[in-house]
């Protein structure tokens, strides 16, 4: 069954390249992607997840204001009865050279299931989604990984 994921850049952030690449990779991996684009509000993510009965919400932030932009996000998610929806955040989540482990802990405490840095390859996000949403990779990929390991 196709799984729907909501993708977008939160707040006033206008960096579009990362989510465009993620959208293409997720589509190619068989996900149904609703791309909200840049400068999306918390409520737009929540409404889209409700309207499309999404399995996951992927929030992107590059410009360093993710913490402010995500304050109260998981309260909205809970108010909309979406606690079962998997939430990820990724990108350049802090201003400057902050230790990523600290950043990761901070966003996990805010309620995100997984936190990714700006070095993240889209394949990593796809593998994480497959694990968290209990999806087997398509047969073609299983075949090719078998061929490589022989
Ligand atoms: C291009 C660019 C711009 C362009 C954006 C054009 C556009 N419409 O996209 C312009 C010139 C407009 C711009 C503006 C600004 N920018 Co700029 N920009 C960049 C730059 C050079 C490249 C970004 C990019 O496209 N990368 C390529 C894509 C493929 O990578 P990516 O975005 O990182 O996405 C990947 C991963 O991060 C990850 N990922 C991203 N989101 C998510 C989400 C999830 C869930 C997952 C799993 C993974 C994931 O997967 C993606 C694909 O691999 C970066 C520096 C850099 N080298 O990264 C700075 C950078 C992001 N910008 C920065 C800043 C500060 C700004 C401005 C605030 C500058 C200013 N003072 O005006 C403004 C903000 C404007 C706004 N409202 O957003 C800073 C952010 C600093 C920080 N976070 O600490 C950076 C890091 C530059 C720097 N070193 O200072 N910028």
UniProtKB/TrEMBL annotation:
The keyword Secreted appears for this protein: no
GO MF annotations in UniProt: cobalamin binding; metal ion binding; methylaspartate mutase activity
Family annotation (PROSITE patterns): B12_BINDING
Protein keywords: Cobalamin, Cobalt, Isomerase, Metal-binding
Residues in B12-binding domain copies: 2-136
Cofactor(s) needed for function: adenosylcob(III)alamin
List of residues binding adenosylcob(III)alamin: 12-16, 60-62
Pathway, per record: Amino-acid degradation; L-glutamate degradation via mesaconate pathway; acetate and pyruvate from L-glutamate: step 1/4
Broadest EC class assigned to this enzyme: isomerase
Any Gene Ontology biological process: anaerobic L-glutamate catabolic process
Family to which this protein belongs: Belongs to the methylamine corrinoid protein family. Belongs to the methylaspartate mutase GlmS subunit family.
HAMAP family registered for this protein in UniProt: Me_Asp_mutase_S
Oligomer and partners: Heterotetramer composed of 2 epsilon subunits (GlmE) and 2 sigma subunits (GlmS). GlmE exists as a homodimer and GlmS as a monomer.
Protein name: Glutamate mutase sigma subunit
Encoding gene per record: glmS
